[in-house]
């Protein structure tokens, strides 16, 4: 029976592994950390359970499709809950917008919070975004972005290209449809879902707010970390294996240049003619594999601007405010200054002085030690850990001081929990890099800055025979739904095991 090696048990690696195991392959996953999930991490402290990465599930049908491929319904293994209020947005002028979780209710809520006519503005924008989504979902997200795959499909009509506006930026699209500064700010925020700058990210990212608002915002009872646990259990049930605490140090090739196995930090060598790498593409081509093709790919992978990182504060809160929303966004006074700092415009990369603050405070008894306590996750966008460029998140005192500043900003905006914090833990971009071996702690692989970014993202089928890439640093990009789709694309490219084909 053919054996496939997967490097990394992040969501991308797990998604590929469970699908391949369900297709009859023997699958062995090697993970350097002690648990599965990668960026979808969990930290527990005295009865508080914190998600350290994702806090929002979008496009639940992709999750459903993934579990269905393993023989179960997602509803049987996870308690998925649709949120009535997707998020509370607080703008610098004091406006508060509680965004409904149902699409039909959104225009009225925007009118009520921002003024008559604003809801219609947003609806007109969403209609355009929906057209983009319909045109791009199958073509760009669910298929490998390769020349041969594109040749197999009929070319898109010119009207489709017009609707997607490949040369327009997200900011440009906002200016076209939205007169209200607050709505433009809201749209800008969706560029951050791919670690990008809205002034440079393509208009096609308008599909992100559309898909979130059309398909809803979701939570997993007990925390999103349960997705990784459930995938690990499915892999186990299908006969796949994961070895934790096992770092892969090299992908090896035979004299013809075809993949023939991997080397491990403990000195072992594992033979395999198919290797699926969930490690960051820059690491795969830059250091794990050493062939002339890999060297060329390493150069190409370094071309797009990497996604920014995140600075996370986990707060064990006593007596949290009763009306604290599940998701809350405190918008920065100067959003452009935030993107300038993240990408090092007008000076090198630097912590954002007054960043937009995102708070996730699930009302879920399963993640707290008792009543009147809260397990809060606070996230601000942060430049990557890059000491060579002058951004050293390990510099003495920096992370602690920055955490204090974030708590102060929250207090300035009416969310003062400083006296109620029983315990806090900081996860800086440097820590994210160490935990997941992601260079610089980039959240989403490469950013979508610039119209060519999607095409510069490494493909799922490598030019090195036998090697496949899965996860946020490869096509179609970062974020849980896309990472799961990359697992599906890779499993389809590899196909079922020969035994299952002949059995069928
Ligand atoms: C703070 C934060 C908030 C986020 N919020 C959201 C959100 O709300 N919604 C959403 O959809 N997405 C969110 N994301 C993004 C989402 O978490 C990622 O896109 C996704 O989890 C990435 O999965 P992956 O499999 O591509 O990579 P990873 O999770 O990085 O997995 C890679 C795995 O490979 C392992 N590995 C690497 N190198 C080696 C090696 N040499 N040997 C062995 N193992 C190795 C790593 O340890 C890791 O487990 C967030 C991410 C972060 C960090």
From TrEMBL:
Belongs to the carotenoid/retinoid oxidoreductase family. Its EC number is 1.-.-.-. It comes from Williamsia herbipolensis. Keywords: Carotenoid biosynthesis, Oxidoreductase. One of its GO terms (biological process) is carotenoid biosynthetic process. It is an enzyme of class 1 (oxidoreductase). Gene3D superfamilies: FAD/NAD(P)-binding domain. Residues 12-494 form the Amine oxidase domain. InterPro entries: Amino_oxidase, Carotenoid/retinoid_OxRdtase, FAD/NAD-bd_sf. PANTHER family: PHYTOENE DESATURASE. The keyword Phosphoprotein does not apply. One of its GO terms (molecular function) is oxidoreductase activity. This is Phytoene desaturase family protein. SUPFAM superfamilies: FAD/NAD(P)-binding domain. Pathway: Carotenoid biosynthesis.
């Amino acid at each position: 029976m053919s054996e496939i090696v997967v490097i990394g048990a992040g969501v991308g690696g797990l998604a590929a592994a469970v699908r391949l195991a369900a297709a009859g392959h023997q699958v062995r996953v090697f993970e350097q950390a002690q648990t599965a999930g990668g960026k979808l991490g969990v930290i527990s402290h005295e009865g508080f359970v914190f998600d350290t990465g994702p806090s929002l599930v979008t496009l639940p049908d992709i999750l459903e499709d993934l579990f269905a491929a393993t023989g179960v319904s997602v509803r049987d293994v996870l308690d998925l809950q649709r949120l009535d209020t997707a998020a509370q947005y607080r703008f610098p002028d004091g406006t508060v917008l509680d965004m409904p979780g149902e699409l039909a209710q959104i225009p009225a809520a925007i009118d009520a919070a921002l003024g008559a006519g604003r809801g219609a503005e947003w609806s007109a924008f969403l209609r355009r975004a929906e057209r983009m989504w319909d045109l791009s979902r199958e073509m760009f997200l669910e298929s490998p972005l390769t020349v041969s795959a594109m040749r197999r499909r009929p070319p898109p009509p010119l009207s489709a290209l017009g609707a997607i506006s490949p040369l327009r930026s997200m900011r440009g699209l906002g200016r076209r449809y939205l007169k209200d500064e607050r709505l433009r700010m809201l749209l800008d925020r969706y560029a951050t879902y791919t670690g990008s700058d809205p002034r440079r990210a393509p208009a096609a990212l308008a599909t992100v707010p559309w898909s979130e608002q059309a398909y809803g915002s979701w939570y997993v009872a007990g925390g999103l970390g349960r997705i990784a646990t459930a995938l690990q259990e499915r892999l186990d049930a299908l006969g796949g294996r994961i070895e934790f605490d096992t770092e892969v140090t090299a992908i090896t090739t035979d004299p013809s240049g075809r993949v023939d196995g991997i080397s491990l930090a403990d000195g072992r060598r594992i033979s395999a003619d198919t290797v699926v790498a969930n490690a960051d593409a820059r690491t795969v081509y830059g250091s794990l594999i050493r062939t002339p093709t890999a060297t060329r790919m390493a150069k190409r992978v370094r071309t797009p601007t990497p996604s920014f990182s995140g600075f996370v504060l986990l707060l064990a809160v006593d007596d949290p405010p009763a009306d604290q929303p599940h998701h809350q966004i405190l918008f920065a006074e100067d959003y452009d200054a935030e993107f300038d700092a993240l990408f090092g415009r007008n000076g090198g990369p630097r912590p954002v002085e007054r960043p937009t603050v995102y708070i996730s405070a699930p009302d879920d008894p399963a993640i707290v030690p008792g009543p009147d306590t809260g397990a809060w996750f606070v996230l601000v966008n942060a430049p990557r850990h890059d000491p060579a460029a002058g951004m050293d998140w390990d510099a003495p005192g920096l992370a602690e001081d920055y955490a204090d500043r974030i708590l102060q900003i929250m207090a300035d905006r009416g969310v003062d929990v400083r006296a109620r914090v029983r315990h806090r833990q900081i996860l800086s971009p440097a820590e994210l890099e160490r935990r997941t071996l992601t260079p610089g702690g980039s959240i989403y692989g490469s950013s979508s800055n610039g119209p060519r970014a999607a095409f510069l993202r490494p493909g799922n089928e490598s030019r090195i025979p036998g090697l496949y890439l899965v996860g946020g640093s490869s096509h179609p990009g970062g974020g849980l739904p896309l990472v799961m789709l990359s697992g599906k694309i890779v499993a389809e490219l590899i196909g079922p095991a020969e035994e299952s084909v002949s059995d069928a």
